[in-house]
Design goal:
This protein is of the alpha/beta class. It contains 14 helices and 13 strands. Strands 1-2-5-10-9-8-12-13 form an 8-stranded mixed beta sheet, with helices on both faces. Helix 2 packs antiparallel against helix 7 and helix 8 crosses helix 9. The mean pLDDT is 96. It binds zinc ion. Zinc ion binds next to helix 9. This is 7-cyano-7-deazaguanine synthase.
Length: 406
């Protein structure tokens, strides 16, 4: 793999070139197969700025990692520290080498506007927000016009916080399965490229206990202390740290129900939006994400679900099948707490899972190792929010986490 960055004003353009033994089919760290659609993408920053070569290399790696085998050649020298992290994490020979490493002091938040990142923003009221905004690609047709990145960007601006929007078409590099981040870490491309000018020494994300510790999303659905995407000691955690920008997961110890409780109880409540399709008036109410999140919100608020989606709709199909489910801990929590669950699309799942308020109590407390993983500079403040708002898990609860999926 060879990558080249060129800049023109506030736009940075990345071009990649595959080696002869590399193909258009690649594999994301979580195991997902992906296919490459084209060989260039761009990132538009709020202003033109020079960027440390390690940051350019890190940003490029979040895009090209799935297709790289054995070797990557950057267009300017990187530090030996960054090259060592690429080698130990992926077995990749990276170079040329010859730059000094960088560092910074401030913590920024990668902010999508969903409940998880809004919870992080509520915990860190002074941290600047960086919002990734999808824009179309000049060479790849956009057949996903229902994805309203413009609405999400507007909501982020309305938070009244220090928000920096970063525009990019990098998601259109994926032909299969659909436009999206080549690696999940590409959402941080703006934070990475701006780390020098903003003096960033860490980037916080809204990954909660399901994504970090329970193998949630499209990953393995079992307890993963060594999660390769998000553990501090995993390949990505070490790579970001080598670039002076450790990954920080302030809500990594609590469940999605608790991040939602935090977000909806915060000043950001009116700007929280997990639906990618809704317009200025509100979420669409018809997509799978709306259905799943409504279950969680109803559970948090201990009320019946408000939805017009019925069990025979395609978006409700997976909940008619037996488990396991992605995000199953939240389906258990929802089924345990929503009055009248037997009249919802989750009736069958509730029968399979047999969850109760007692059996899901652990999902209201914080898993202590998640706090231990936070870099020391920011640990104390986050730890006290966890202690005051949720309390920490006891040995019994921790056993629930550590035997998840077995
Ligand atoms: Zn929706």
């Amino acid at each position: 793999m060879r990558v080249t960055w060129t800049s023109e004003g506030d736009v940075w353009r990345l071009r990649l070139r595959l080696d002869p033994d590399e193909g258009v089919t690649g594999t994301v760290t979580d195991g997902q197969r992906v296919e490459l659609a084209t060989d260039t993408c761009h990132v538009r920053l709020p202003r033109s700025s020079s960027v440390h070569p390690d940051l350019l290399a890190l940003a490029a790696w979040t895009v090209v990692a799935p297709w790289t085998r054995g070797r990557i050649v950057f267009d300017r020298p990187i530090s030996t520290e960054l090259a060592a992290a690429l080698h130990s994490g992926w077995g990749v020979e990276a170079g040329p080498v010859g730059e000094s490493p960088r560092s910074g002091t401030r913590l920024a938040i990668s902010y999508s506007g969903g409940a998880d990142s809004a919870a992080v923003a509520a915990i860190l009221p002074d941290a600047p927000l960086l919002h990734f905004r999808r824009v179309s690609h000049p060479r790849v047709p956009n057949r996903w016009t229902h994805y309203r990145s413009d609405v999400l960007a507007r909501l982020a601006e309305k938070t009244g916080r220090d928000v920096t929007p970063v525009e990019s078409d990098l998601e259109f590099l994926l032909r299969y399965p659909r436009p999206g981040y080549p690696e999940h870490h590409a959402v941080m491309v703006g934070a990475v490229l701006l780390a020098g000018t903003m003096d960033l020494g860490g980037v916080a994300l809204g990954y909660e206990i399901g994504s970090r510790w329970l193998g949630g999303g499209r990953y393995v659905h079992r307890y993963t202390p060594d999660n390769p995407m998000w553990s501090a000691h995993g390949p990505w955690g070490r790579l970001f740290a080598a670039a002076g920008l450790p990954i920080v997961l302030p809500v990594g110890g609590i469940s999605e129900a608790m991040t939602m409780r935090l977000a909806l109880g915060s000043e950001l409540r009116d700007q929280v939006r997990w639906c990618l399709r809704g317009d200025g008036d509100g979420p669409c109410g018809r997509c799978g994400k709306c259905l799943y999140k409504e279950l969680i919100q109803a559970a948090v608020e201990r009320r019946p679900m408000r939805t017009t989606i019925t069990a025979d709709r395609p978006v409700a199909r997976k909940w008619q099948q037996p488990p396991p489910y992605g995000g199953q801990e939240m389906i258990e929590y929802g089924c345990a707490h929503v009055p009248g669950i037997e009249d919802t699309p989750f009736a069958r799942a509730a029968e399979y899972l047999r969850a109760t308020p007692e059996s899901t109590k652990w999902l209201e407390r914080c898993y202590p190792p998640a706090v231990e993983e936070i870099p020391e500079a920011w640990r104390k403040g986050i730890e006290s929010v966890m202690a005051d708002d949720f309390g920490f898990m006891h040995a019994e609860d921790m056993k629930r986490v550590e035997s998840w999926g077995r």
